[in-house]
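cron nightly-structures :: item 1 of 1
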Amino acid sequence: MNEPCYEEVRDFYTSDLKKPALVEVNVWLCTGRSSSRSSGVSFSCPHVFLCLCLLCLVGSLLGHPQCLDYGPPFQPPFHLEFCSAYENFGCCDQERDNSIAAKYWDIMDYIDPQGHKLCETYIKDILCQECSPYAAHLYDAENPRTPLRNLPGLCFDYCSEFHFNCHSAISLLTSDKHIQECCETNKTHFCNLLHLHDEDYCFPNVLKNTALNRNLGSVVEDRKGCLQLCLAEVANGLRNPVVMVHANDHTHRMFIAEQVGVIWVYLPDGSRLEEPFLDIKSIVLATPWIGDERGFLGMAFHPKYKYNGKFYIYYSYMDKNRVEKIRISELKVLASDVNKADPRSERNLLELEEPAANHNGGQLLFGVDGYMYLFTGDGGKAGDPFGKFGNAQNKSALLGKVLRIDVDGKSPDGKPYRIPPDNPFVSDPKARPEVYAYGVRNMWRCAVDRGDPVTKKGRGRIFCGDVGQNRFEEIDIIVKGGNYGWRAKEGFECYDTKLCHNSSLDDILPIFAYGRNVGKSVTGGYVYRGCESPNLNGLYIFGDFMNGRLMALQEEEKTNKWKQQDICIGSRKACAFPGMISSYSKFIISFAEDEAGELYFMSTSYPSAYAPHGSLYKFIDPARRAPPGKCKYKPVPVNTKSKRIPFVPRAKTVLELLNEPSTTRPPKKSSAPTAAVPTVSSKKAKKTPSTTIKSSTVKPALSGKKRQKIKAEAKHHKPMQKENMARVSRTTPAPPSPKQKSSHLTRTRKLLPKKAAPAKEKLEKRRKASRLRSF
């Protein structure tokens, strides 16, 4: 595996400090002696200033744009009247800006006219640092293990000027008794306390640093142009999760299907229902063989599911004559339980005989036109060897196609669906009327673009990843009647020379294709149209199953061409936020979006349908978020009859890793470049001793080079079975430990000195009314 971004992450970890055990300390002690005063807690370090420097050094390792609520900065939705320097990008909305302004005028009431001229700018700037994009760094809030500052980190020269001109205002800016007693008259003590180890981040230097502010608010790129995104673990313990969909019924439930044929319901609070939504593993043809492409492959909810309770599934099965087939069918939800499907309601819509075990397609989706689109594989083997031109170029065959049907009607010939009247080949006697597009090999994961949230540009486009034969993987946009070239072409190049030079081919080229030096098996993704990460709007994010590489395509408006960039996950500097993780399981199976439009992907460390090592991850942009409150939604409550199983994360967060003492030497850098950042679990899937399908009655899963490659990739990641026993046998996760409050207010109460008695009653009363989060 070539993983340069992963190596960079490891390099960062080598310089990590061993963190001391969490102790309550008084940051503002001005002497080297321990204190037993009621307003503070004794400092366990005999060299206070040295300890403070170490704490600042820890903070410098994590220096990145972050607010005091531990989230990324944002663009305020409304003009900021007071802290206007941060109205384009920062950590304050209009409400917080007004609160800071009120505190400013409270303070200025106690300063004489001459002091106004000398101090008004200093006081305003210091108060407004809560709005700075680097507020968390200025207040030592990046690391929850370090105490929070009362005042922001100031550069020494600026601090000295402030103290010289306005030292009497210190007692008005903070109620900390120690600062008031020892630092109002001692400039050196005061400025040493406000000193930051990394002077690039102290105020006002942080505003002048071009490196820190050049692309502030944009998606972070490393030196190689790799986009730095972060992940949150959402679900784990899944057996090859192939699909995650939502019902578009405003409940914000997520339905995750496993390859074995089980669908689970996940609630908005992250918990999973103990009883599955649907369990048809006794019917689904799936084996524990690594890389077997058969099984439960697709699912889609009817656009009017909220009213009719209908959904559709796509799976492999074996008929009574031992013939392997694909079945697409309709089911309904139980009237008595909205979280349970009725397996007896299954209505078969379409069955296709599969001549080989691979290339089964599997995507189901509804377009903006209300019709259902089905994506079938070319029948398998290699090179589409079926017939004169192969299945994909044969419009009279349903394999190797994009099909479009109307599930709300029946055909005159008795088919359980209707043919849309504008299907492109309805009048062609040599073509099946279901065919919408052809010339596809094995499209694995397609998605409908929701369109730009404001302009709706791009709405309705269908993006697909088409897995290549042995040279190229491609991304296509599906159009009516389009020929996507296979087997004449693979990517942009000829595959079958004779067919390729046929003047009637008239194929549609992919928007992007990549060779085997980049990846070996594309997994199609989604165009991001969510709310929480506005920088990602319009990015088509996808990946490669074999090597775990994540990539993005951005359309250039003027040329309509697509620019590709790699995505790197897990920079421990960029992702040092609560809940963020720095690695993921290697084999990327599928992508998904929730009802709000946020983007996810599913992957596993061991690609077997029976191995419970699959996880669900959510993409998060660490550089910029939506303004607070913009993305809030209120899920429609659902009655749950099944027990709720709380989510228990297994992956360590970046903050946990940073606070972990280094016990092993990091791996050496790899010289071969790749952009993927996955890590593979060291646990091996427990082999299932028995299965409902006998190996002697099914076709071999993968007989060619691709299965050998998958097996070789997974072989290095087989863990010791002994280590895995507890993990596999655990069916009900342990309840999560109680969440620790991480709010700014809570941390301040725990770690900072108690508020001193007010020197001026009027000021203290007004402070209480507009307190700046207890600063």
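cron nightly-structures :: done
The two ends are 49 Å apart (CA to CA).
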